[in-house]
């Protein structure tokens, strides 16, 4: 499992997005407030990212949470994970 601090979560997300990015792979991944779409993440890769998150943190996103706005940036995604884990910010 990945670390549960907010910074650990963001680091995991940046690495995962960078690994999935097809258009502009980069070692560090996108900035926290940069849309992950800018990194080349399409809808299919977003599903792969969600699966990676659910597996790494042993959480599940409900159908009504599967909105693009909830997965727009590293910061937004990290906030969703933090809420599900109950991690102090």
TrEMBL record:
InterPro entries cross-referenced by the UniProt entry: ACP-like_sf, PP-bd_ACP
Any coiled-coil regions, as ranges: none
Domain Carrier: 4-85
A Pfam cross-reference name: PP-binding
Organism domain of life: Bacteria
SUPFAM superfamilies: ACP-like
Name the UniProt record assigns to this protein: Acyl carrier protein
């Amino acid at each position: 499992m990945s670390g549960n601090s907010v910074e650990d979560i963001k680091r995991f997300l940046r690495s995962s997005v960078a690994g999935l990015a097809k258009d502009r792979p980069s070692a560090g991944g996108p900035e926290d407030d940069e849309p992950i779409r800018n990194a080349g993440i399409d809808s299919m890769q977003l599903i792969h990212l969600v699966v990676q998150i659910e597996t790494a943190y042993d959480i599940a996103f409900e159908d009504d949470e599967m909105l693009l706005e909830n997965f727009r940036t590293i910061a937004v995604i990290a906030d969703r994970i933090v809420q599900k884990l109950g991690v102090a910010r």
